Amino acid sequence: MDLLTKVWIIALSVGIIIYLFEKIRKQKYIVKFSMPWFLTFLIIIILAVFPSLIDKIAFILGVKEPTNAIFFIAIGILVNNIINLSFSMSESKKQSIRMAQEIALLKKNIFEMNGTISDEIKITQEIALIENNIKRQER
């Protein structure tokens, strides 16, 4: 790998890491979701700085070409990130359903309370009307 390629890989990876930090700082991205991406780009930087690691990893994996090892590692990392995001989405979906159910129960309780309150108000108003009618009749 020539020097210019290393510089580009490192610069792009560092730029993406800075971008992620900026999104987290502005609270537009959650740390939990960004951790796999930080790990991914740190691995990319390490492999760019130490390209001999790619040869060793390829040998350990039993892959003849180091570029195939890079693709294998990249696909593995991306699949891991996608699985993590799928789990998070599933958990968010469950949480949304649970919150919707709780809101529905609260609304039901409020409507029931309003119904009993309005019944009590009607009874109180009727009692007041009867008392007023009795007072008029006494006069």
Secondary-structure blueprint:
Blueprint: H1 3-25, H2 31-49, H3 52-61, H4 66-138
Helix pairs in contact: 1-2, 2-4, 3-4
Task: State which percent range the strand residues make up.
Answer: under 5%
In whole angstroms, the N-to-C terminal distance is 109 Å
- Poorly predicted runs: none
**Major beta-sheet overview:** none
Tell me the helix content. over 70%
Write the H/E string, N to C. HHHH
Provide the structure class: mainly alpha
- The count of strands amounts to 0
**Domain module tally:** 1
What is the average of the pLDDT values? 85
**Contiguous helical run count:** 4
Overall 3D form: rod-shaped
Taking all Cα atoms into account, the compactness measure Rg is 33 Å
Describe this structure in words.
- By secondary structure, the chain is mainly alpha-helical.
- Helix content is about 90%, strand content about 0%.
- It has one domain (about 5-105).
- The longest helix is centred in the last third of the chain and has 73 residues, at about 65-139.
- It is rod-shaped and about 110 Å long.
- The N and C termini lie far apart (about 110 Å).
Protein traits:
mainly alpha, single chain, 139 residues, 4 helices
Can I get a quick summary?
With 139 residues, the chain is mainly alpha-helical. It contains 4 helices and no strands.
